[in-house]
Design brief:
2 helices, 74 residues, four-stranded antiparallel beta sheet
Length: 74
């Protein structure tokens, strides 16, 4: 079962998703129809799908978006 929304990221990035302002995009996977986003406040990686958004860990993000490390250094 997925973690509750309130435990993901920080209030800054959760508020961005709730209001539609989005967290900055750093990579795209055309084949998966997803994009990778990075919260500069809490350093959380988010994966935006066609109908939802969820956090993604760095090891999974590196496999799907191999160039994302060029954008962030942590």
């Amino acid at each position: 079962m997925s973690d509750p929304w309130a435990t993901k990221g920080c209030e800054v990035c959760r508020a961005a998703w709730r209001t539609g302002t989005l967290v900055p995009e750093i990579a795209v996977s055309i084949g998966r129809h997803t994009s990778l986003h990075f919260c500069e406040t809490c350093q959380t990686l988010w994966e935006q799908h066609e109908r939802y958004v969820d956090t993604i860990d760095r090891s999974d993000a590196k496999k799907i978006y191999p160039s994302f490390l060029d954008v962030i250094k942590k």
